[in-house]
Amino acid sequence: MDTAAVKDYLLALQDLIVSRMEQVDGKSFIRDSWVRAEGGGGTSCVLENGNVLERGGVNFSHVFGANLPPSASAAHPEVAGRSFEAMGVSLVFHPRNPYAPTVHFNVRFFIATKPGAEPVWWFGGGMDLTPYYGFEEDAVHFHQICSNALAPFDGSYYPRFKKWCDEYFFIKHRNEPRGIGGIFFDDFADRDFDHSFQTVQSVGDHFLSAYVPILERRMGMPYGERERDFQAFRRGRYVEFNLVYDRGTLFGLQSNGRAESILMSMPPIVKWSYQWQPEAGTEEARLYSNFIIGKDWLGNH
């Protein structure tokens, strides 16, 4: 098991994504390195008020600790209390244009150790798309690239991880999906370390081709105050999910991570409207009826 190779891959992936998004936006990310008192640290790359991205962040973290937090050991009660090492790249991009979707992506690696016992390790990650206005070609493209990333490793992964994503990124108190999904997996230690790591690398390597073509198609579309208003309203749902349900946010805060880096995923402008409903027959209503419904985007194509 080569944890150094995982770290090298994650750092290179962070650099690659930041570099490509700087080309798209025309503005540079700021790099902010930090150290965690309990052990480890990371680098947050953040772009705010860009030409295309209203906010974007690509975080790398590598932290150590004496006890695994409850959010990380929930699926592995046998490792509670072990010392741990966790590393990963996590990103969220919130474009300014309401026709361009928000995207979230992460890949991560955990290892829990105890003297005299075999280490317990697993990977996690995925990517998911949160549009404000729905375009079928965008949804199909994003899901097709997710499928392509996993196909060489096991034909069952995409349908399994797609379903997991639909179930995970679901706002229970609203009874609605956060977006149109993608893929999500956790506690992933299939076959052996090499197979699992190669699968995760493929997911990371496919992220830019899943998202950038959609962003470039939508970032120049004309929009007005109505679209910005709906975008801010839907971003409120994003905030609700992250603060109430997201395991990554909970793990970061429970492990005394850097709040500024953990919460950089929040959209910069958000609003809540009391009991607001979209008008029937509008593009806003169509998002609810045709897109955020846990649909099988590849089944009809």
Query: How many domain units?
Result: 1
| Most strands sheet | 7 strands, antiparallel
CATH class: Alpha Beta
Oligomer: single chain
**Helix percentage:** 40-55%
CATH topology label = oxygen-dependent coproporphyrinogen oxidase
Order of helix and strand elements from N to C terminus: HEEEHEEEHHEEEHHHHH
Shape: globular
Helical stretch tally: 9
* CATH H-level homologous superfamily name: Coproporphyrinogen III oxidase, aerobic
Q: Which CATH architecture would you pick?
A: 3-Layer(aba) Sandwich
Instruction: State the low-pLDDT regions, or none.
Output: none
Number of strands: 9
Strand order of the largest sheet: 1-2-3-4-5-6-9
Strand content: 25-35%
Structural class: alpha+beta
**First-last Cα distance:** 40 Å
Chain-averaged pLDDT: 93
Would you mind describing this structure in some detail?
With 301 residues, the chain is of the alpha+beta class. It has a single domain, classed as Coproporphyrinogen III oxidase, aerobic (oxygen-dependent coproporphyrinogen oxidase). The protein is built from nine helices and nine strands. The protein has helices at 3-25, 70-73, 136-150, 157-168, 193-218, 225-244, 247-254, 259-262, 283-291, and strands at 30-35, 40-48, 53-65, 83-95, 102-113, 120-130, 170-171, 176-177, 181-188. The strands form two sheets. It has a seven-stranded antiparallel beta sheet with strand order 1-2-3-4-5-6-9. A two-stranded antiparallel ribbon has the order 7-8. A hairpin with a 4-residue loop joins strand 7 (170-171) and strand 8. Helix 1 (3-25) packs parallel to helix 5 (193-218). The longest helix has 26 residues, at 193-218. It is globular, with a radius of gyration of 19 Å.
